[in-house]
Amino acid sequence: MDIQILSMRFRDYSKYIRNVSQDTIIRYQRVINLFCNNLKITEIEEINDVKARNFFIEGRTNRNWKSATYISYHNTLN
């Protein structure tokens, strides 16, 4: 299934059911887009543990994420 459709549904659920802030919705969208663009994926079925782990390792080693960024992104995608 298309990950952007699922992302939109998740953001709608978060906004209308969970009542999260607009800033949180924007963070969800940015992190999901970064994840998808970095891994060049479009379908949810393309995601696996290895790809997710590599995304976070690359973020810490090549993109110089601070631990707070890592934790924020991990919590967003988890």
Radius of gyration computed on alpha carbons: 13 Å
Q: Note the total helix count.
A: 4
Largest sheet: none
Helix and strand pattern = HHHH
The stretches of 5 or more residues where confidence is low (pLDDT under 50) are none
> Per DSSP, what share of the residues sits in E-state strands of 2 or more residues?
under 5%
Summarize the amount of helix as a percent range: over 70%
Shape assignment: globular
Account of the 3D structure:
- With 78 residues, the chain is an all-alpha fold.
- Helix content is 72%, strand content 0%.
- It is built from four helices and no strands.
- The protein has helices spanning 3-16, 22-39, 49-61, 67-77.
- Helix 1 packs antiparallel against helix 2 (22-39).
- The longest helix is centred in the middle third of the chain and has 18 residues, at 22-39.
- The mean pLDDT is 92.
Key traits:
78 residues; mainly alpha
In short:
With 78 residues, the chain is mainly α.
In terms of topology, how is this protein built?
Layout: H1 3-16, H2 22-39, H3 49-61, H4 67-77
